[in-house]
Amino acid sequence: MSLVTRTRTRAVETLTLDSPHHRNALSAALVGELAEGLTDAGKDTGVRAIVLTHTGNTFSAGADLKDPPPPDALVALLRQIIELPKPVVARVTGHVRAGGLGLLAACDIAAASTEATFAFTEVRIGVAPAVISLPLLPRTDPRALARYYLTGERFDAAEATRTGLLTTCADDVDTALAPILDGLRKSAPDALAETKRLLTARVLETFDRDAADLTALSARLFSSPQAREGMTAFLERRDAAWAV
Length: 244
Prior knowledge:
Elements: E1 4-9, E2 12-17, H1 28-43, E3 49-54, E4 58-60, H2 71-83, E5 88-92, E6 95-97, H3 99-106, E7 109-113, E8 117-119, H4 133-139, H5 142-151, E9 154-156, H6 157-163, E10 168-170, H7 173-185, H8 189-222, H9 225-235
Parallel strand pairs: 2-3, 3-5, 4-6, 5-7, 6-8, 7-10
Antiparallel strand pairs: 1-2, 8-9
Helix pairs in contact: 1-2, 2-8, 3-4, 4-8
Family: Belongs to the enoyl-CoA hydratase/isomerase family.
InterPro entries: ClpP/crotonase-like_dom_sf (IPR029045), Enoyl-CoA_hydra/iso (IPR001753), Enoyl-CoA_hydra_C (IPR014748), Enoyl-CoA_Hydratase/Isomerase (IPR051683)
Protein name: Enoyl-CoA hydratase family protein
């Protein structure tokens, strides 16, 4: 069964994360399928833009704790989204946690319904938002990131828009996206590609400078005793040993 489905409407390819029973967690298999879908859409001259969306009530719960992708595979996926010569637009109607926020930050445009919620939950299971910081730090308000990185608090779509994580939010996300997608359809393909290169240059500088260090940090933290306790506590639906 496919974990990422594909549809197309008027030159816009929609890639849908379709593992709702696992809250669209970023497993090794899902990351691989999404990368393949992005590659195919990027090469297809009939595709003007890509929409990344989801089934179920969760866009992505972050890394699949039972089958996580290697950190370098997640780095490669985030970089692929940023380097793709076509705009990638996130469409969110549910919750986004941890690594899922990295996907949003990598997208060129991100829109969510007002029912969506967001949280960097890494610190609560004993790790850090290391790899996803590659697109997040250059694009998001640093004071907001400090708060939400350090506390793991949940925040809403209006706050996500204020901080730069989202482009826009609305009660009806499809109505909000309609003029955006129409604008992309009217734009010249080569001009879109070169304009995207201008917009992503500084983000890619961060990848070039920091990807190796943050990948190593992620691997080290995920293998630590605190991470083992945090993940066990999460799966057992209890507080971790350090909670006071």
